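Troubleshooting: if your tokenizer reports a length mismatch, compare your output against this known-good record of 254 residues.
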Amino acid sequence: MKPYDAAHFQHERCKPFLHKSGAKGVLLLHGFTGSVAHMRPLGDALADHGYTVMGINLPGHGTTEADMAASNWNQWLAASRNALITLRRQCTAVTVVGLSMGGLLSLILSEEHLPDACVTLSTPLAVQNKLFPFAKVLSPIWPRVSWRPSEDRRQKLNERFDYGYSGFPTRKAVDLNTLLDMARKGLPAITCPVLAVQSRKDETIWPGSANYILDHCASKQKEALFLEDSPHVCTLSAELPEIVDAVDMLLMEI
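Known-good structure output:
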């Protein structure tokens, strides 16, 4: 599938947002090739529950794949860290909630002891795509990975908010692998409350990811939520209310 041009992401749903409400804040981080639109339904729901919610676009995302090619894991992590610091100035406590790669960023921020709680959604501790470890070698001869949404994805996701790239520069998988390794190695440093959410139907990530996160972090308060029928982008699925309830319960306890 051909790359989208920047006009594809000009919709209001793709723009960063800040819902100012209660004293407790939530930072939402989207995934690899995604955009803040993937997090907006969750953000709107949490704002309705009385939380101040911020959603951002990571550098190189929500514009063009050329922009993504010019960005890197350092920039994604720095943007996440800066957003959390900004939100903390407005809130008494901040929870970071990340989808997929956004979950890796959330774990790394938690390893730095920056948020008061951490929620990972569909977060990989390994990926199912066997080509990812060889991205650096493959990129000169296979510069772009592309895909076409499956019919199952179309049926199970809220397409009104499904704004992401139709592929990615192959070399960017190296950046994703770097974040994955950082997050995995640093898990024992995490002491804040952790909620790990994963769907049993997620075919993108290693099925043992959520349990691995919880087994290896040092948090005393940690819990898993397993969804039954959501694809990888679970924030756009019919099981979103279950995620909202679980995050709300965690937030009430911090």
